[in-house]
Queue: 3 jobs
Job 1
Amino acid sequence: MRKLSAGYFHSVDGVIESPNLWQFDSFDDELGATLGAVMASVDTVLMGRVGYQEWAGYWPSATADGEFADFINKVPKFVASHTLTKDRLTWQNSTLIEGDLIEFVRDLKSRDGREIAVMGGISLARQLLFAGLLDSLTLITHPVVAGPGKHLFEPSDPVTRLELQDLSRTSKGNVLATYGLRKQ
């Protein structure tokens, strides 16, 4: 069974929206190496509509951004959306998920391949976590209070027990905490 993971840049006050506004002064070589290892282990990406539209507007022409641009432009991307249509997915290697999302992801996890990563999809990662399909969730907490912005979790979310799988910190004070669902 393939592993399904998600990872998000996160401020101390819990903001994950628009990390480009607050993360770069704390981005360091260790964090870059960690992200490089993620790219090396992933061969499939899941995206939600909002993340897909934002990223598809930037990454196809962002060739100067090097390694990540090469990765994200070439990797197969499956997009979960109730409003997008196949013909509106113009970014290379993008496919619309048709039918039930949870069934699709269960089937995808059962196929041969390397790791599957949720990228650019806050609500998608939440759905997959609460459905019990997300194997790991990494929060990369930057030493900054970002102020207003979206959080990964909401007050109305169900109580969900997690267990710490890995914990490390980088030279610029980023904390990488990886969690999995606690096994009953």
Job 2
Amino acid sequence: MNDIASPDKPLYMQLLRELVEAYQAFEGYSLPHIKSLGLTPAQFDVIATLGNTEGMTFKELGERTLIYKTTLTSVVDRLESQGLVQRQPSLEDRRSTIAVLTDAGDALFRSAFPKHSEYLRQRLDQLSDEEMKASIEALRTLRRVFR
């Protein structure tokens, strides 16, 4: 929809429609590439979040990923069974467990993350610097509205 001032729909509904359609377009472009790397979107999210870290508690991992807490444990279970993630007891809080990439998980991160970043960059490079900055600011504003 290019007509911003559509008389038949309130402006906020037009904004919501554009937001949803932009997210769907992003997912439609991104997901096949993630799957081509041999990962599910949730697995990629965990690997990418744990990459370049010393590991995180499940609470931290849940806050930094797009994965619901109820799903996170099963995603980490699958990554652990594949030898990509391991659980370690927290040295600071005996009640907490830390999820850490194994050497194989780190190797996957170092391979998959740059490939996927480059894949996304190829599309985003179609925007000028000004368009990127305006998009960043608009998305930050929307995030503030919903928090």
Job 3
Amino acid sequence: MKVIAINGSPNKKGNTFHALSMVGNELKAHSIDFEILHIGHKMIHGCTACGKCGVNKDEKCIIKTDDLNKWIQQIKDADGIIIGSPVYYSGIPGTMKSFLDRLFFVSGSNGGLLRHKVAAAVVAVRRTGGSATLDSLNHYLTYSEMVIATSNYWNVIHGAKAGEVTNDLEGKQIMRVLGKNMAWLLKMKEATAGKLEPPKKEKKEYTNFIR
């Protein structure tokens, strides 16, 4: 089994990286492969709402100026996903938001590439805005019918300079517990594969409130 973590920070080894690594260490202790995909320093175009991913259904975004289509296949092949983000003005940084919008649009438009994968969101913050950012990240996971791993508190860890999150004892525990719970869910899925049939995907009903 393999988990891919998305580092949405522009800093390759900042506090978001350290938070993801804490979760990853627990996964690796349970013999689960773990990889961090750093996208926060890339030039990633935002979604243009062209709808071509739903028309073409080739598991690709029509925008070819970045590596999103390569990343989609890497993430599709993983058993679990962690999306990690720093906090910019109490929200997700623009690059990470662009990445997530297009990744999840392509997934949803192609039959749900991420559906029922085990997932979690992690946030690194200096002071406040962590809960708001975590909530925004979780919107992607819940909409996509992913199986969300939890911890013993919100998945937020605190620190300013790179590495300061290692001094947040409660935050470190949150990441450890998250890793253990995620490993458990992954192993349960593996143990029940072929024995317990997952729910069939329903066609999405769209209701607009303009009459």
